[in-house]
């Protein structure tokens, strides 16, 4: 019936009805659009009015307060820079997400920068099948990652942000999104590994559409477009004979991964160059503290294995780094006359370990002479990264320093050669080279090697040197005392070795905490150092037990190892125990010892003003007979004024000269420097100004020129009522820079002062032949410096013959202008 009625209805009427309904809808939609448009116009008018009133108010306030124009220009420039910086970052993040969502074929055809690792490295295999599996498991990965972030990363971030007065950090929501991470390639190792483990490297790339919100200091914020890229190593060990066939996993990044993200919400105001670097640096530090070498993230898969196997530290060696100097760095500071100099410092990174030199102000040729030592867990894969920065002042907590370049060194090359002395051209810089000296130190189980290690540190005379490495595994504590009768304690353990201290995590409400954590310490001297353990309660801060362990005890153990066992705790109950294991290794170098030649007199440094050593010839050593005159000062007093004279006595002795005598072609004597044996030198020198005794030596290993000022003899006394107050100052020529100035102490009222002070210059062997050492003897009697302050001067040419120590007397000459 309905069908017939419909059929009997004229088609025209249906069209008219449809048209009428369309007209009614269009009229209603037009009315709603007009209403919406009028509302939008009103809101735009209000916003525009508020902006104009605010602008007028700001201008009026600036004029009323007599503010500078910079108060207006500064924020505008900052906003423009911020917008451009965020635009570039957004383009990069969108590109990264496009790569993450595309398959390998699309990525390669697009010729993007972030190509899979297997494209560049033939030993890395494709893993597209594995990416499909990860995509299927991604929802479950979301749940595990949320638990991991809340339990481990959130407390660490809260502690780190409190240093910047940002309190109460808490994650509100964690959603990793629908885009899983990708594996760009996998490499499985089948050589030089244990039969009881499987090692593989995964090229991890994550650029997902995550949705993470948090609160800090009452502000709400969020993180979007989180990105991470790095080489992840997975170690499967030990292999067992029952399901799951693998006892556990060690997961860690070989080097710091690249991390980037975008801030949203109220904290978006901090998303500026400088401010945002703080949060990014904190996030990188927390990731590094968890799973960047030497830190590893263990996952236990079978209850049949001990946790110590997965969590015990296992370093392969130690890399000793000497950052000597840099040359011709970029000029970043702007002065009135244009580009000035820079204030450079260096940052070294080996995995999660970071070291920083001091800042040398106002120079492009800094000399740091900085030493550090990094523990290496995988010498075949780890890198040493050196970054140079120009320090700039800024607001507290901001990072305003300008990059001066960077360099990367493979640890494997240094370990293979034992030592590297490198001048490296900086990358990402227009100009600049840096001088590094790298030494690979193996780990020895013989305590007899400690003697050589201690001798080496004494020769280097650097306070931050170490001779051994100590590895601890803290399993648990038992029967700790209960600080309060009502509640159980929250114990944690602190360990201190020398100047280094570390602590375990806090275990809540127990007197039998289980930590199962590994620690590694560098030891300066096992003969004198000790380990100090303290168990503390986080609630009360009270001490629940302590232990002191002398490291010399390990010298009596087989392979310097102590297996896992309980140790009694003092200040606790009689049954309180700390369960742990430890082993020590001595740092050993395979380098030949530096050829230290005994100091000899009269080794023949005769020439002056010539920097070429090609004309020099070596005369074979032979025993010579020469008289040695010893001068003993005699003091007579007349009228209360000391009169200094010299009494000479001569002895003829036979001196066996083991050091070859060096001669050179005649050279012009620009300053009249005369270097003779004492027997043929007059008591006051050739010019009647006295003599100075020096020791000069160049250390190839340390890249240092060592100068010892022993004494000055027979300074002429022109006025008995005005005895000089002598001191010695040194400069390196031809520049005579302030950085090369050295000065001895002042000796009061003395014509034969004894200093015995040593000075060092960091200088490469190649530069040695182009430098001269200016040594000036002065007196401090005069109020202001003038020519009357100078008592005498010598200028010594430097060359590579100084690798053999030279000790001699030099006749003081008049000051050279």
UniProtKB/TrEMBL annotation:
Residues 603-628, 665-686 are annotated as: Disordered. Residues 123-302 form the SMP-LTD domain. The chain crosses the membrane at residues 58-81. Keywords: Calcium, Lipid transport, Lipid-binding, Membrane, Metal-binding, Repeat, Transmembrane, Transmembrane helix, Transport. Residues 610-628 have a biased composition (Low complexity). The keyword Metal-binding applies. SMART domains: C2. Residues 300-424, 451-569, 688-810 form the C2 domain. It comes from the Eukaryota. It is found in: Membrane. It holds the Pfam family C2. InterPro entries: C2_dom, C2_domain_sf, C2C_KIAA1228, Ext_Synaptotagmin_C2B, Extended_Synaptotagmin, SMP_LBD, Synaptotagmin_SMP. The keyword Nucleus does not apply. This is Extended synaptotagmin-2 isoform X1. It comes from Nicrophorus vespilloides.
């Amino acid at each position: 019936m309905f069908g017939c009625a419909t059929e009997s209805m004229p088609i025209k009427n249906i069209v008219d009805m449809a048209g009428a309904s369309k007209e009614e809808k269009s009229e209603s939609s037009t009315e709603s659009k007009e209403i919406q448009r009028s509302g939008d116009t009103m809101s735009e008018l209000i916003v525009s009015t508020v902006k104009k009133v605010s602008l007028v108010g700001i201008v009026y306030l600036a004029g009323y307060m007599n503010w500078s124009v910079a108060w207006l220009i500064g924020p505008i420039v900052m906003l423009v820079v911020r917008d451009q910086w965020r635009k570039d970052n957004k383009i990069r993040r969108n590109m990264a997400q496009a790569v993450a969502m595309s398959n390998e074929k699309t990525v390669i055809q697009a010729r993007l920068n972030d190509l899979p690792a297997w494209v560049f490295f033939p030993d890395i295999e494709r893993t597209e099948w594995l990416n499909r599996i990860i995509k299927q498991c991604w929802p479950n990965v979301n749940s595990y990652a949320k638990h991991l972030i809340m339990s481990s990363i959130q407390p660490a971030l809260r502690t780190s942000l409190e240093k910047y007065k940002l309190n109460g950090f808490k994650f509100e929501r964690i959603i990793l999104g629908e885009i899983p991470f990708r594996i760009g390639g996998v490499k499985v190792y089948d050589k030089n590994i244990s039969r009881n483990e499987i090692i593989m490297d995964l090229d991890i790339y994550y650029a997902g559409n995550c949705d993470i919100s948090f609160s800090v200091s009452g502000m709400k914020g969020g993180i979007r477009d989180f990105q991470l890229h790095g080489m992840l190593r997975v170690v499967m060990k030990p292999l067992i004979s029952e399901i799951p066939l693998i006892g556990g996993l060690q997961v860690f990044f070989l080097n710091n991964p690249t991390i980037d993200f975008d801030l949203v919400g109220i904290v978006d105001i901090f998303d500026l160059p400088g401010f945002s670097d703080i949060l990014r640096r904190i996030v990188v530090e927390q990731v590094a503290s968890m799973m960047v070498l030497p830190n590893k993230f263990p996952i236990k898969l079978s209850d049949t294995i001990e946790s110590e196997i997965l969590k015990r530290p296992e370093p392969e060696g130690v890399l000793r780094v000497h950052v000597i100097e840099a040359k011709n760095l970029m000029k970043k500071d702007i002065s009135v006359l244009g580009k000035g100099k820079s204030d450079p410092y260096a940052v070294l990174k080996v995995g999660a370990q970071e070291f920083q030199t001091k800042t040398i102000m106002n120079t492009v040729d800094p000399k740091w002479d900085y030493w550090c030592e990094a523990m290496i867990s995988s010498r075949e894969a780890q890198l040493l990264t050196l970054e140079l920065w120009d320090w700039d002042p800024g607001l507290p907590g901001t990072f305003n320093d300008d990059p001066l370049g960077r360099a990367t060194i493979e640890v494997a090359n240094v370990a293979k050669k034992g030592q590297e002395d490198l001048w490296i051209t900086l990358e990402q810089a227009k100009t600049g080279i840096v001088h590094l000296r790298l030494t690979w130190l193996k780990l020895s189980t013989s305590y007899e090697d400690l003697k050589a290690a201690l001798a080496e540190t004494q020769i280097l005379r650097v306070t931050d040197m170490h001779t051994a490495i100590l590895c601890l595994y803290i399993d648990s504590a038992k029967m700790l005392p209960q600080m309060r009768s009502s509640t159980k304690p929250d114990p944690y353990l602190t360990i201190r070795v020398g100047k280094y201290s570390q602590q375990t995590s806090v275990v809540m409400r127990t007197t039998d905490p289980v930590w199962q954590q590994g620690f590694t310490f560098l030891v300066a001297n096992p003969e004198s150092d000790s380990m100090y353990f303290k168990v503390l309660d986080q609630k009360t801060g009270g001490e629940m037990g302590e232990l002191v362990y002398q490291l010399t005890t390990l010298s009596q153990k087989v392979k310097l190892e102590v297996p896992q066992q309980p140790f009694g705790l003092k200040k606790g109950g009689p049954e309180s125990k700390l369960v742990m294991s430890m082993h020590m290794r001595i740092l050993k170098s395979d380098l030949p010892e530096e050829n230290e030649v005994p100091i000899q007199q009269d080794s023949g440094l005769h020439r002056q003003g010539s920097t070429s050593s090609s004309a020099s010839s070596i005369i074979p050593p032979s025993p010579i007979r020469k008289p040695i005159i010893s001068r003993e000062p005699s003091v007579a007093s007349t009228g209360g004024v000391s009169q200094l004279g010299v009494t000479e006595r001569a002895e003829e002795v036979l001196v066996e000269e083991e050091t070859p005598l060096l001669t050179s072609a005649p050279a012009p004597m620009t300053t009249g420097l005369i270097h003779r044996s004492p027997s043929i030198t007059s008591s006051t020198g050739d010019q009647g100004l006295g003599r100075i005794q020096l020791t000069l030596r160049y250390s190839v290993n340390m890249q240092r020129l060592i100068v010892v000022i022993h004494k000055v003899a027979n300074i002429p006394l022109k006025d008995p009522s005005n005895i000089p107050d002598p001191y010695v100052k040194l400069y390196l020529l031809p520049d005579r820079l302030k950085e090369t100035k050295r000065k001895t102490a002042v000796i009061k009222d003395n014509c034969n002062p004894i200093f015995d002070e040593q000075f060092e210059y960091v200088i490469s062997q190649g530069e040695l032949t182009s430098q001269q050492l200016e040594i000036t003897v002065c007196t401090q009697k005069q109020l202001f410096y003038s020519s009357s302050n100078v008592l005498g001067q010598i200028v010594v040419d430097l060359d590579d013959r100084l690798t053999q120590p030279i000790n001699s007397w030099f006749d003081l000459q008049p000051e050279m202008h």
